[in-house]
Amino acid sequence: MTALDRLTRALESALIVLLFGMFLMIAVLVVLRYLFATTIIGGNEATIVAFIYTTAIGASIAMLRDEHIAINYFVEKLSPRLQGQLLQLRLILLAIVNLVIVVYSIAWIQRTGGFLMPTLGAPQMVAQLSIPLGGSLSVLYCTVRLLR
Questions:
Q1: Rounded CA separation 27/21 (Å)
Q2: Closest C-alpha to 127, from 109, 145, 140
Q3: What are phi and psi of 115, to 5 degrees?
Q4: Which long-range contacts (CB under 8 A, 24 or more apart) does 82-87 make?
């Protein structure tokens, strides 16, 4: 098993934990709200932060496996050689876009990451770090696919 495989498995495990945690938190919040007229302070924000991370990490893994949403009607009409070249171009463009997102998100986090979330009281940086994390993973996975 390669380092990339171990990283991907670790990320998938993190996704499982986050999704299960979100499910449990939402179930508990619903029961508390409708049966006991109370809530867990910060529960909604914690669920949102978990959702943000599952989206960022899940999108990068989908990129590795070419499991993203696509309409390939016109691409399938091309020759296999052109399809391969178009795939390479797409991966290069995706890597560039994600790299730009990473660079700009770091500057954004430096300016606004210290502000606190309203109910959790945690710095917004906790949620914002999902953007450079997901973007960096996407750049990594695009590069790996280009080299294969």
A1: 10
A2: 109
A3: -65, 145
A4: none
Q: Which string of b and e fits 132-147 if b means at least 16 CB within 10 Å?
A: bbbbbbbbbbbeebee
- Give pTM, 2 decimals: 0.89
- Estimate to the nearest angstrom the gap between the alpha carbon of 146 and the chain centroid: 20
32-87 tens-digit pLDDT: 999 999 999 999 999 999 999 999 999 999 989 988 777 888 888 889 999 889 98
Extract the tokens encoding 114: 């210290």
Q: Which residue has the tokens 């294969």?
A: 148
Unique residue bearing structure tokens 């309203």 = 118
Mean confidence (pLDDT) of the chain:
94
Which amino acid makes up residue 26?
A: I
67/131 Cα distance (integer angstroms): 20
